Amino acid sequence: MSAPSFEQLLQQDKFSRKDLVRMLSANEIDTLKLFSRAEEVRISHVGKNVYLRGLIEISNICAKDCYYCGIRKSNKNTQRYELSNEEILSAAEFAHKNRFGSIVLQGGEIISNRHTDWIETIVREVKKLSNGSLGITLSLGEQSEETYERWFEAGAHRYLLRIESSDPCLYREIHPDNSLHDYQKRLQSLDLLQSIGYQVGTGVMIGLPKQTIEQLAGDLLFFQSNDIDMIGMGPYIEHKDTPLYAKKNNLSFLDERYLLALKMVASLRILMKDINIASVTALQAINPEGREEAIKVGANVIMPNITPGIWRNVYKLYENKPTISQDDEDNLSYLIERIAAIGYNVQLDSWGDSLHYKSRKKED
Ligand code: SAH
């Protein structure tokens, strides 16, 4: 039997690693077909809505030392901060008033009773100030089962924890080899979050030094076999104050990483038709149109940064992070217009839960 044509491949229901490799290595003409199939799948399965999550970067203090990340513990060239409760709550208030529907609290990884209590209080306060209406996603790294449970009880209902790379060997290359950075532990955290009842998001970096297309295809299959509800994945962007910077000669050009990230988004939409996919900031860091381009090939969530302005530049995971705010009050209508201009609709006042999560729950 001869191999299916690229068009036939895109219409399949099931995809092997080989099929996904073919999609990710598509030439220019086939890439257009991939993108248009992804758009078709997106519209028929999750519609034309785009949901907002106001991103609040609550602290860049981190106990971890991930080789790629600008806020790693050993980076002495960065000023450390933690937002005050007032700063966080006024950002949440802003999101509420502007009808964002939900927020994400993201920060470095800290494990302490004080930190657990602090987040628990903040989650309760955000719920209070919005009469329960703001959805809350957390992105605060690996924590104990008890901590995850307490935050869930307090009212957080989604959690983002990227697997970074689902290939254990590559994972080991980009993290220190110790128990704090253990691949198995990260997997266990994802399981814990799912069993507690969170909607779980994960993701990977695309274009890491020496990362192969086969590994990226494996990442897509990992998302599928782990029944993931939401994905945020974007290009790896080097940061000069990190160990991985030494491997920058092994990197592809930024525009190639960017295109590969769009192909990952499109292929994932075709593979997992009803999940939420975020159009991430790292895309926008490479191309000012990145956010809209990812929406057109299957992403349905955007995370405007609503961290108080003075701290936005200090939370630097990678170089070139967009710092000017496109996302303040006067610019929110501009964002809505830009999304409308490409034919999509920003859905205000909505949690925008993953349809995949809803059908997963029905099956339980
Ligand atoms: N501490 C939290 C979240 C903070 S970092 C956690 O561990 O989940 C959020 C994400 O930024 C990381 O998961 C990583 O995928 C991404 N990131 C970090 N450094 C990056 C870089 N140099 N280029 C691109 N993305 C990066």
Provide an overview of this structure.
The chain has 364 residues and is α/β, with parallel strands linked by helices. It is built from 15 helices and 12 strands. It has helices at residues 6-11, 17-24, 28-46, 85-97, 113-129, 145-154, 168-173, 183-196, 213-225, 254-271, 281-286, 290-296, 309-312, 329-341, 355-363; strands at 49-52, 54-59, 102-107, 135-139, 158-160, 199-202, 205-206, 230-232, 234-235, 276-279, 301-302, 345-347. The strands form 2 sheets. It has a 10-stranded parallel sheet. The protein has a two-stranded parallel ribbon with strand order 7-9. It is globular. The N and C termini lie far apart (39 Å). The protein binds S-adenosyl-L-homocysteine.
What is the SS-derived class? alpha/beta
Bound molecules: S-adenosyl-L-homocysteine
Low-pLDDT runs: none
Strand order of the largest sheet: 2-3-4-5-6-8-10-11-1-12
Helical run tally: 15
Q: Output mean pLDDT.
A: 95
Net shape:
globular
| H and E order | HHHEEHEHEHEHHEEHEEHEHHEHHEH
As a percent range, the share of helical residues equals 40-55%
End-to-end Cα distance: 39 Å
Main sheet specs: 10 strands, parallel
